[in-house]
Amino acid sequence: ILQVSSKMKSNSAWYSASSFSSSVPTVKLFIDGKFVESKSDKWIDIHNPATNEVIGRVPQATKAEMDAAIASCKRAFPAWADTSVLSRQQVLLRYQQLIKENLKEIAKLITLEQGKTLADAEGDVFRGLQVVEHACSVTSLMMGETMPSITKDMDLYSYRLPLGVCAGIAPFNFPAMIPLWMFPMAMVCGNTFLMKPSERVPGATMLLAKLLQDSGAPDGTLNIIHGQHEAVNFICDHPDIKAISFVGSNKAGEYIFERGSRHGKRVQANMGAKNHGVVMPDANKENTLNQLVGAAFGAAGQRCMALSTAVLVGEAKKWLPELVERAKNLRVNAGDQPGADLGPLITPQAKERVCNLIDSGTKEGASILLDGRKIKVKGYENGNFVGPTIISNVKPNMTCYKEEIFGPVLVVLETETLDEAIQIVNNNPYGNGTAIFTTNGATARKYAHLVDVGQVGVNVPIPVPLPMFSFTGSRSSFRGDTNFYGKQGIQFYTQLKTITSQWKEEDATLSSPAVVMPT
Ligand code: NAD
């Protein structure tokens, strides 16, 4: 980690030795094709979550800097929208190659700032890369529709056209994948983009911006600002921004959805979750227990698709002791350490919140079968570590069930029947993801059809759709009506224009005004 950190200090265009304060590197803004030092007097520390060392500082961009970023996006838009779709595709084709070549470097930055294991960080980049690859299909994805001869000599056809300047606001938990859900899809359609990464993990986005520039994206097509509330309000209110993509918590997402919509923008907001894994007694036990443990505790539970709630149906409740044994075997360590299965939580505050939610389980009558609150990681005593935790006897009215924990905590409920399990899942306000584990096709089919959740896995614990589909979380996990990536992503970032056209060979002059609605 230290090696990456010192390398970044000396070599990187996105961090620079700061004149602002001592030797802590600062994150630059990316404005009009240049990595520039902010003039802000408000800075936020970036910590390595495994040590809590300050590894950098990110500015809260000033109003003038944010204005400059938007002006740059706006200036670049007409030429970029007019660039042939094949040329835009070429930029993205080069981009996917450069991301592949730099995948490990991006992953190291993610582990340094976010804490997840290196292998998991590579997965983070890889899942974003798949969206870039998907964006390369723009030449078919952006096609409009045609209908010839809707009446004599008249044809009807539509174009999909870019909107203008779009913006993205990203969370901390997938520093590469989530920004890559946003700007590549928007830009390949001919939009220009203003990105605000999470202030806790800006590094990956900065490196991704550099690679995009190296791929040939013209100056101004992507601009990056940093900050928190002021930057978010700026994006929600600015009249030149036509659409906002947000991923993060419900608190921020609902606020941004409402404020952005009030200003007439399209907003898509992917938000929090409480994902249930329903375990039927006929499931393949070995497979199911491994899937549950991986999906509950991987990335220290800091995934919106983490399978954080198990519903054991009937005899499956007898598997609980084995589930605990498997979870105990996971290795908690700094993300860059060989063999680590899960790393730290993002901040000391996140750790405290998770521990308080575990405490609430005890107070409200649940049983802690495995307790990760007091874990110590040798050599990383100051890190924000929580070990795998399993809470059983959980009831739907308990705080640890109602809140999204966002930590390595699995809450376990029990039911006698599948119908009861479905009822529990459907009564939960979130609809991001769910999974059923069974060897019975009819049971799986019934679950998939009756459960009111946007993404369902059958013997697949984290059913995040590949980018030729869309990410379709529902109910309280999503606001908006057009999802991220896939055909819906293209729809979100484009406006349809429909053309009705008449060309007659003979003289088409009307002999009198056509005052009646044409039929
Ligand atoms: P967050 O909401 O705290 O931050 C997300 C972004 O919003 C950041 O850029 C931040 O600067 C900004 N922000 C934070 N608080 C704000 C506020 N009060 N007003 C305006 N802007 C604000 O989220 P996070 O902690 O970075 O990410 C974790 C959350 O994201 C979890 O709830 C997780 O489920 C969710 N998430 C959802 C998905 C999905 O696709 N559904 C994917 C990843 C993460």
From TrEMBL:
One of its GO terms (molecular function) is methylmalonate-semialdehyde dehydrogenase (acylating, NAD) activity. It comes from the Eukaryota. It catalyses: (S)-2-methyl-3-oxopropanoate + NAD(+) + CoA + H2O = propanoyl-CoA + hydrogencarbonate + NADH + H(+); 2-methyl-3-oxopropanoate + NAD(+) + CoA + H2O = propanoyl-CoA + hydrogencarbonate + NADH + H(+); 3-oxopropanoate + NAD(+) + CoA + H2O = hydrogencarbonate + acetyl-CoA + NADH + H(+); (R)-2-methyl-3-oxopropanoate + NAD(+) + CoA + H2O = propanoyl-CoA + hydrogencarbonate + NADH + H(+). Keywords: NAD, Oxidoreductase. Pfam families: Aldedh. PROSITE patterns: ALDEHYDE_DEHYDR_CYS. The keyword NAD applies. PANTHER family: MALONATE-SEMIALDEHYDE DEHYDROGENASE, METHYLMALONATE-SEMIALDEHYDE DEHYDROGENASE [ACYLATING], MITOCHONDRIAL. NCBIfam families: MMSDH. This is Methylmalonate-semialdehyde/malonate-semialdehyde dehydrogenase [acylating], mitochondrial. The lineage of its organism: Eukaryota, Metazoa, Chordata, Craniata, Vertebrata.
